[in-house]
Amino acid sequence: MTFSVDLRWRAIVLVYVYNIDRSTVSSVLGVSARSLERWYTQFRKTGNVSSERKNKNKTSRWPPDVCNFVKKYVTANPCFYFEELREELRANFSDLLNISDSSICRALRFDLGLTRKVLTKRASESIPRERREYVQRLLPYYCGPDQLVFVDETSKDARSVLRKYGWSSEISLPIFAETCRMPHSLQLHVKLALPLLKYRKIALRGVVARL
């Protein structure tokens, strides 16, 4: 069975960008695990998912000023979602047409040499800036250590609302989650999920009503 290029790109974005388990993507899109693995390997090697020889383009074909803008945006917002980057491109480059998921994938991977990385978590107390701010807040009231009372929050981790992945160069220092305080967006996840549900012809009335 031959699958469309659009479906192949949808699978690649879910696996490569959003790190969704391959077995889940295979089940939702109705493709075999072997096909999914072949598409993913082909993308990593060539930047394409089509087997046609004429489709040899490995880059996004974006102008240099667009690539420079994206590079600065990624540096400032390493854990962005594709939809957020796409909105920024529309706002700043209204005449830019090729802003599909496939073009963004090629730009990040081959034009800019960026890869997706798991954000590294660390306690906020280990961040110098956080420690300095904490000391400054206490100084007006602090007289001695006998004043200090700390609440036990061992079962609470405020970092759980932070995003889990970011983008940086292939050889770079870890990206710390605390430097990327962009929470999960319910509306954005809904936008990502609904096309998949529609593709599988799953009833959406109850889902949309609850959201």
Textual characterization of the structure:
This protein is mainly α. It has a domain at 181-211. It has 9 helices and 2 strands, in the order ααααααβαβαα. It has a two-stranded antiparallel ribbon. α1 packs antiparallel against α2 (22-29) and α1 (5-17) packs across α3 (33-46). Mean pLDDT is 73; it is low at 199-211.
Give structural attributes:
elongated; 2 strands; 48% helix; Homeodomain-like_sf; 211 residues; mainly alpha; 5% strand; disordered C terminus; two-stranded antiparallel sheet
User: How many beta-strand elements?
Assistant: 2
Query: Please, what is the average pLDDT?
Result: 73
Radius of gyration: 21 Å
Q: How would you describe the oligomerization state of the chains in this entry?
A: single chain
Structural class: mainly alpha
Series of secondary-structure elements, N-terminal to C-terminal: HHHHHHEHEHH
Uncertain runs: 199-211
Enumerate the strands of the largest sheet in spatial order, edge to edge or round the barrel: 1-2
Distance between the termini: 36 Å
Q: What best-fitting shape do the alpha-carbon axes yield?
A: elongated
Q: Portion of residues in helices?
A: 40-55%
Q: How many helical elements? A: 9
Proportion of β residues?
Answer: under 5%
Furnish the topology, listing elements before pairings.
Elements: H1 5-17, H2 22-29, H3 33-46, H4 64-76, H5 82-92, H6 101-111, E1 114-118, H7 128-138, E2 165-169, H8 186-199, H9 205-210
Antiparallel strand pairs: 1-2
Helix pairs in contact: 1-2, 1-3
